[in-house]
Design brief:
By secondary structure, the protein is α+β, with helices and mostly antiparallel strands. It is built from four helices and twelve strands. It has a domain of 144 residues: Gcn5-related N-acetyltransferase (GNAT) (Aminopeptidase), CATH 3.40.630.30. A nine-stranded mixed beta sheet has the order 2-3-4-7-8-1-9-10-11. The C terminus is likely disordered.
Length: 221
């Protein structure tokens, strides 16, 4: 009886959490030269997933969202062993301004950078070298494109992702906090415009990500 009541409450509770919540993100910059993974790991069952690749169907995103990411000059990198039809993990690198689906915000990248989003490692591959292999390939792709850094935004509750990015060499360059009150969304940010209050009908605020600092103050070069 108790389990039945719990199951019936899950859906409305999820709906409430989506409409009324507070989330803080840290914004990180990772210099291509600072990516700390052995280059020999690249190309080991790792490949770029093109728009017609059947493996994209395993990514839990709508077709519209996946198409939008490719429109943002996106590159999807995935790992799938030849003997398996399941992805061990994947990540996206986007080169164009990105309006993310969770909140009302468009992230504008500095020149010669990309943004990594939706880095995911399947449960069965966690604790393996999948994360390192994906980033070994990502570093190759970034260099081939002449990009100097990757920007990412990570939920502060996702300690695993934060630690993994920091081990790669990522450095914090900003933060964002979103307070959702039904149709109203309040954003506080370390970066301009610093504060915004929007509804679904409001223009989406644009956040200009700063250029990673130069050699004089950090390893970025």
């Amino acid at each position: 009886m108790q389990n039945t009541i719990t199951q019936r409450l899950k859906a409305p509770l999820r709906h409430i959490r989506r409409r009324y919540n507070i989330t803080t993100y840290r914004i990180y910059a990772l210099s291509v030269e600072d990516i700390k993974v052995p280059r020999f790991l690249a190309r080991s069952h790792v490949r770029q997933l093109h728009p017609t690749d059947p493996a994209l169907s395993q990514i839990p995103r709508t077709q519209e969202e996946i198409a939008y990411r490719f429109q943002c000059k996106g590159t999807c990198i995935g790992e799938a062993p030849p003997s398996s039809t399941s992805l061990n993990g994947y990540l996206w690198l986007l080169e164009a301004p990105y309006t993310e689906p969770e909140h009302r915000c468009t992230l504008i990248l500095p020149p010669n950078t990309a943004m990594d989003v939706d880095v995911y490692i399947a449960r069965h591959a966690r604790g393996s070298l999948t994360f390192a292999r994906l980033w070994a390939e990502a570093s190759v792709v970034l260099k081939q494109k002449g990009l100097r850094a990757s920007i990412c935004r990570i939920d502060t509750r996702n300690k695993t992702s934060i630690k993994a990015h920091e081990r790669l060499g990522a450095r914090s360059i900003g933060w964002q906090t979103f307070l959702c009150l039904g149709p109203l969304e309040v954003m506080c940010c370390r970066l301009p415009p610093y504060l915004s209050v929007t509804t679904r009908a409001s223009p989406v605020p644009q956040i200009q990500i700063p250029t990673p600092p130069g050699k004089a103050s950090s390893p970025f070069d």
